[in-house]
Amino acid sequence: MDAVTGIDWNHNSFYHRFLVRQLPGNATRVLDVGCGTGAFAVVLAGHAERVDAIDRSPAMIEAAKQVVPANVTCVLGNILAQRFPPASYDAIVSISTLHHLPLDEVLPVLADALRPGGVLAAVALPRTDLPRELPIEFLAALAHRVLGGVFALLRTLGPGDWHAIDPTHAAMPVMLDPSLTTRQVREQVTALLPGARVRRRLLWRYSLVWHKPLDR
């Protein structure tokens, strides 16, 4: 729970809509990298014919298998060791996973698995870039508390989880001090994936969106 207000909520689920908006309209096959307990894979299942959800944690995969629909395949494996057929996915998405991985190793793997014209979209945690990001840190802390109060009220008034913390959330891996700032992520990503867009987001996240060129 939030130590100041007693209000906490799921920042990752807040970005589900953003990532869904990045999906191509004709997405047939989508890869969810670092699927955790499967919450986002369930969402993706409504936007693609087939979803592969991969995580290296046996506990996370077992939890995901309990909630995903039939068009989602849960895969236990390390994304860096996994071998995907080239150009096999229309979209590859990820929430709060890339900051656990070396970008120079994982991004080429994902780029190779993406079909030409496909989309790579991810949200992950950056190291805070101080003092440059002091204003956004202040806004994030304020938004966390204000939105947390609003979501808590909405949960009492009617249906919908309104970004409630999942009971399995405590089992998720946590990185309190990511190694790269958003600027450093942008430098690495644009060197590996020319044309990629990396932006600092509110609520302690950055976003990465890349459209694979048709001739790559």
In a few lines, what is going on in this structure?
One of its GO terms (biological process) is methylation. With 216 residues, the protein is α/β, with parallel strands linked by helices.
Q: What can you tell me about this protein's structure?
A:
The chain is α/β, with parallel strands linked by helices and 216 residues long. The chain has 2 domains: 13-127 and 177-212, Rossmann fold; 133-161. Helices cover 33% and strands 21% of the residues. The protein has 7 helices and 7 strands; from the N terminus they run H-H-E-H-E-H-E-E-H-E-H-H-E-E. It has helices at residues 11-14, 16-22, 39-44, 58-65, 103-113, 134-157, 182-192; strands at 29-33, 50-55, 72-76, 89-95, 114-124, 197-201, 205-211. Strands 3-2-1-4-5-7-6 form a 7-stranded mixed beta sheet, sandwiched between helices. Helix 5 (103-113) links the parallel strand 4 (89-95) and strand 5 (114-124). Helix 5 crosses helix 7 (182-192). The model is unreliable at 1-6 (pLDDT under 50).
What sequence of helices (H) and strands (E) makes up the elements? HHEHEHEEHEHHEE
Largest sheet, described in full? 7 strands, mixed
Beginning-to-end CA distance, first to last residue: 46 Å
Helix content: 25-40%
CATH C-level label of the largest domain:
Alpha Beta
Molecular shape: globular
Structural class: alpha/beta
Strand tally is 7
List the strand order in the largest sheet. 3-2-1-4-5-7-6
**What fold name stands as the CATH topology of the largest domain?**
Rossmann fold
The chain-level mean pLDDT equals 89
* Rg calc: 17 Å
Going by CATH, the architecture of the largest domain would be 3-Layer(aba) Sandwich
Low-confidence parts lasting 5 or more residues at pLDDT below 50?
A: 1-6
**Tally of helical runs:** 7
Instruction: Name the CATH homologous superfamily of the largest domain.
Output: Vaccinia Virus protein VP39
The count of domains is 2
Organism: Nocardia brasiliensis
GO molecular function: methyltransferase activity
Keywords: Methyltransferase, S-adenosyl-L-methionine, Transferase
GO biological process, one term: methylation
